[in-house]
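Hypothesis: this fold can be encoded by more than one sequence.
Test: take the structure tokens below, design a sequence, compare later.
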């Protein structure tokens, strides 16, 4: 028997079942992230073929009277040979594009795996995180920081000061915090206008969101879905800790950990386009040198199997997050980082304190909420086991669902 933090007990057999459900739905969730529709699931299993059409089926003509169907024209004898030749040519073209796509998918996967193991590359080039990130974390996590100190560290982080000045002049942002837009020229005045406490809470979210490239021809909806997941997880973690009344856990810690937890998934997504282009360019160069014109032409039309993103997210995203967290040396951030690492590396509820447990619970709830709203949760009967894998009761799940945790209540933070 396993005992959870609040004393509830569950048999080893039932707990193993809940964990299996959790693993399967986690895979389904990342397939949904990579899908090109808000309400469909992409390929979950890695497949050899990308095109499912049966190219042998001729819908509008019949080669013989015995094959003829209603509304089909029977080919003349002289036309049969030409129709078969055209169909064979079409099938050969599809097969060689399939072959090129399999080669490209394999090369992109290898390129991605190598790139994602280079933490400095991810930090500087892929996520474009600030050089002075530790100073920013120290200042945010220091209770008595002044406007001047915060303004100074914001200004030293490229683009962050300009973003803040733009925000205080933005009508929509100011409406959300219940204030009038202001044309402010310097960062310190902008800090004072928003307020220290509110800015401490929303600045990490602003920083990470500004690093996401929301346009990607390969996975056009992934960034938007992933950001919804990050925001819902952050808000959910904050809500759970606040409701629980856990002491010595500032709300900032939960929002900060919630967005930083997704550095790895964001890096996987943003590295993909570069890996795709570089891999295809390399392959085209190799095929040109070999004078393999048929495969060269097919490579120009090839694409990767969409399930490659699901596979990379499951295998590499958390590793990348942990590696990136290792780059943050701020002493004040150390406690948050350690608990975040625990949330990513320990699966049993007994191994967590309430803070790191809340982050796992919020992520489970976020997956359930987003899949359900998109009509992609596999079976409502599985929801109890999925929630229980991180010990969330059905009552708590429903209560969180009523809280509109998918959006930031800026007035609550800043007003």
């Amino acid at each position: 028997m396993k005992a959870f933090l609040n004393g509830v007990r569950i048999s080893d057999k039932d707990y193993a079942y809940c964990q299996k459900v959790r693993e399967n739905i986690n895979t389904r969730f990342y397939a949904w992230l990579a899908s090109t529709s808000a309400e469909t699931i992409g390929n979950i299993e890695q497949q050899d073929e990308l095109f499912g059409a049966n190219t042998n089926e001729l819908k509008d003509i019949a080669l013989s009277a015995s094959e003829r169907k209603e509304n089909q024209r029977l080919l003349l004898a002289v036309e049969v040979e030409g129709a078969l030749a055209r169909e064979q040519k079409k099938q050969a073209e599809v097969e060689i594009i399939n072959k090129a796509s399999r080669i490209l998918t394999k090369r992109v996967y290898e390129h991605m795996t190598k790139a994602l193991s280079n933490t400095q590359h991810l930090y500087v080039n892929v996520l474009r995180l600030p050089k002075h990130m530790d100073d920013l974390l120290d200042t945010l996590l220091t209770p008595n920081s002044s406007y001047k100190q915060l303004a100074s560290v914001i200004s030293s982080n490229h683009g962050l000061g300009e973003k803040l000045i733009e925000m205080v002049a933005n009508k929509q942002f100011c409406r959300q915090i219940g204030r009038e837009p202001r044309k402010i020229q310097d960062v310190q005045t902008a800090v004072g206008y928003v307020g220290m406490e509110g800015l401490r809470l929303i600045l990490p979210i602003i920083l990470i969101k500004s690093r996401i490239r929301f346009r990607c021809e390969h996975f056009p909806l992934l960034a938007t879905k992933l950001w919804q997941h990050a925001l819902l997880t952050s808000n959910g973690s904050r809500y759970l800790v606040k409701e629980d009344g856990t002491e010595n856990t500032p709300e900032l810690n939960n929002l900060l950990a919630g967005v930083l937890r997704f550095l790895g998934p964001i890096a996987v997504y943003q590295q993909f386009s570069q890996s795709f282009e570089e891999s295809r360019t390399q392959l085209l160069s190799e095929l040109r040198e070999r004078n393999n014109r048929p495969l060269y032409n097919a490579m120009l039309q090839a694409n990767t199997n969409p399930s490659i993103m699901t596979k990379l997210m499951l295998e590499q995203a958390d590793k990348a997050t942990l590696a990136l967290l290792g780059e943050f040396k701020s002493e004040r951030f150390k406690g948050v980082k350690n608990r975040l690492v625990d949330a990513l590396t320990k699966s049993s509820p007994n191994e967590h304190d309430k803070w790191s447990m809340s982050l796992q619970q919020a992520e489970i709830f976020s997956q359930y909420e987003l899949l359900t709203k998109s009509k992609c949760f596999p079976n409502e009967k599985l929801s109890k086991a999925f929630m229980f894998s991180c010990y969330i009761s059905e009552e708590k799940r429903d209560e969180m669902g009523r809280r509109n945790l998918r959006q930031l209540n800026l007035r609550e933070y800043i007003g």
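Residues 2-49+107-129+211-414 form one domain. Confidence is low (pLDDT under 50) at residues 44-68.
Hypothesis status: open.
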